[in-house]
Amino acid sequence: xxxxxxxxxxxxxxxxxRLKGKRIAFVPTMGYLHEGHLSLxxxxxxxxxxxxxxxxxxxxxxxxxxxxxxxxxxxxxxxQLAEEAGVAALFLPEVLEMYPYYPQLTTIEVQEVxxxxxxxxxxxxxxxxxxxxxxxxNIVRPDTAYFGQKDYQQVRVIKQMVQDLNxxxxxxxxxxxxxxDGLAMSSRNTYLSEEERKEAICLSEALCIxxxxxxxxxxxxxxxxxxxxxxxxxxxxxxxxxIEICDAETLKPLSYVQRQAVVALAVKIxxxxxxxxxxxxxxx
Length: 284
Ligand code: AMP
Hints:
Blueprint: E1 2-4, H1 7-19, E2 24-29, H2 35-47, E3 50-55, H3 75-85, E4 89-91, H4 95-98, H5 117-121, H6 125-140, E5 144-148, H7 152-164, E6 170-174, H8 194-199, H9 201-215, H10 221-232, E7 238-247, E8 261-269, E9 272-280
Parallel strand pairs: 1-4, 2-3, 2-5, 3-4, 5-6
Antiparallel strand pairs: 7-8, 8-9
Helix pairs in contact: 6-7, 9-10
């Protein structure tokens, strides 16, 4: 596996692969890798010749009171996991390499789909995401990029950016990897104490309750949400940031589930903010 630290080296590697006629896949991450990240690599390998993974904790997508400084980092372990997973090139730029001037003057903002859900509770977050992802796309120049459905809104926003700006690549969304008890894998799960880890199961359980009620015939969003709130409020450390049922495409809130919808939630367990989602009312 080639380890690359600079944009210049990344561009050279890209040219070499292109000359060999390789199809290049890209998996952008913030590191502290888990099976969710590695599942993106597995899917990427199926349809491509070479997989590039980036690890970059992007300061631009963290709010001033968020966990940028505390975000877990372990490059040595990540490098080993990426190599074992079959990553061809690991791009590990420093902040100064990506942002020689900070904050940079140009940003990318996607309207509407980035303003709801996490966009409403984390102002500026998606501008940080789309700006870094666009920069990484311009540096790595992949044929296809892979993102997790765990961050449903993120994939939706990125697909919109790619469509609106005619970026020459395809975006693929990969299903959520979960722990045995249902908790969605996340680098932030490492913040949880033993007790909080037990309580964190309430996110996926609430989503299952919602799906069961929906499958039994309940289509009223308010009712579906009420049962989820009841489940989450059983946990002493859980504080709901949002629970919403939205149109899977527009992310606009629904009163009744008559078509494919995303049930999305963000819950703080102690100091750790976790997100999860499921699709109901149609194919995932
Ligand atoms: P992150 O390092 O958290 O920014 O995540 C990097 C990529 O991995 C994003 O596309 C995430 O959606 C994806 N990802 C994170 N957790 C999971 C998971 N549990 N299952 C599938 N993909 C995931």
